[in-house]
Amino acid sequence: MKYYLGIDIGATKTAALIADENGNQIGTGRGGPGNHETVGFDGMETAMCDALDSAILDANIHRDQIAGIGFGIAGYDWSAEESHMQATIARLGLNVPYKMVNDVVLGLLAGTNEGWGVAVVSGTGCNCRGWDKEHKREGRVTGYGVLMGESAGGSELINRTMQIIGYSWTKRLPSTLLANTFIDHVGAKNLEDLIEGYTKGYYAIGADSAPLVFQTAAQGDAVAQDLVKWAGVELGEMANAVIRQLNFENLEFEVALIGSMFKSGEPLIAPMRDTIHSLAPKAKLIRTEAKPVVGATLLGMEASGLTITLEQRNKLKKSFVK
């Protein structure tokens, strides 16, 4: 029996999953933060080793039984990083075929029915990547959020929301219920105190406050509703950029929606769908809760040359319960 390893290297944790050639989960493991941008390549190695060792122990197999590995790496954004990634992976001592991708691609592999299409992430931040059916061509955005004008995860939505609240205070825009919502949220004395505290940093308002915008929009506040629509359009435009890169305009394909922002449902997804359908009318948007590490293991199967059937793919998705 051959076994396949997937490692999802994230900013807060690292996950490993081992499956057999039939798509059965055999073992799982965990490690600490592995994003080289915050922990360095030594930290990345430590996180991978911890996840690998615990997965091997859980699976009760030997390392030499692993036939292929897939790595999804947070912070792997540029080709210049490739040699550093390869050198770090080599220190694991696993002399088997492997593939490595940006971790967003794992969501695409695990979240779509056939492992290709477009994945849009909207959680604390936002990102978007796509793969063609043969996994030969990749489309992407930069993944650098506000710095590169890409929106909208929770951070970008809150950034824009506070700007709009500031505009209402200076009378640049009409008043909005969002002002009272955020005054109550942080315990500010009034709108001026909210703006002062936010700009000076003693009122911390971050991505975790994004649900307040959706709640205020649901109460009928037009400004909040416009913000939610703005976020949906921005996410749609990110997807459209990738669709153009991959020439998907006339194809039937899936757009996997990944991340906590999509829990808000149709108020965010509807304008996103409309934006995408204006370019690619056959695109199908699907919510997914699939674990990215499943995508890493599927990538490991692919790296070994195994042809993955729909049955194997679905079996692995269903078997992963941890």
Give a summary of the structure in a few sentences.
This protein folds into two domains: 3-104 and 290-319, ATPase, nucleotide binding domain (Nucleotidyltransferase, domain 5); 113-287, 2-Layer Sandwich (Nucleotidyltransferase, domain 5), CATH 3.30.420. It has helices at 36-59, 82-90, 103-111, 154-169, 177-186, 191-200, 210-218, 222-246, 266-277, 292-303, 310-319, and strands at residues 3-9, 14-20, 25-31, 66-73, 98-102, 117-122, 126-131, 138-140, 253-258, 283-287.
Question: Could you characterize what this model shows?
Answer:
This protein is an alpha/beta fold and 322 residues long. The chain folds into 2 domains: 3-104 and 290-319, Nucleotidyltransferase, domain 5 (2-Layer Sandwich); 113-287, 2-Layer Sandwich (Nucleotidyltransferase, domain 5). Helix content is 45%, strand content 19%. It has 11 helices and 10 strands. The protein has helices spanning 36-59, 82-90, 103-111, 154-169, 177-186, 191-200, 210-218, 222-246, 266-277, 292-303, 310-319, and strands spanning 3-9, 14-20, 25-31, 66-73, 98-102, 117-122, 126-131, 138-140, 253-258, 283-287. Strands 3-2-1-4-5 form a 5-stranded mixed beta sheet. The chain has a 5-stranded mixed beta sheet with strand order 8-7-6-9-10, sandwiched between helices. It starts with a strand and ends with a helix. The mean pLDDT is 94.
Structure keywords:
322 residues, alpha/beta, Nucleotidyltransferase, domain 5, five-stranded mixed beta sheet
Distance between the termini: 23 Å
Q: Write the CATH architecture name of the largest domain.
A: 2-Layer Sandwich
Biggest beta sheet summary: 5 strands, mixed
Portion of residues in beta strands equals 15-25%
Number of domains: 2
SS summary, helix count: 11
The strand order across the widest sheet is 3-2-1-4-5
Which regions contain 5 or more consecutive residues with pLDDT less than 50?
none
What would CATH call the class of the largest domain? Alpha Beta
Which structural category fits the helices and strands? alpha/beta
The coarse silhouette is: globular
- Count the beta strands: 10
CATH fold name of the largest domain: Nucleotidyltransferase, domain 5
What's the Cα radius of gyration?
21 Å
Q: What is the string of helix and strand elements?
A: EEEHEHEHEEEHHHHHEHEHH
Helical content class: 40-55%
* Assigned CATH superfamily of the largest domain: ATPase, nucleotide binding domain
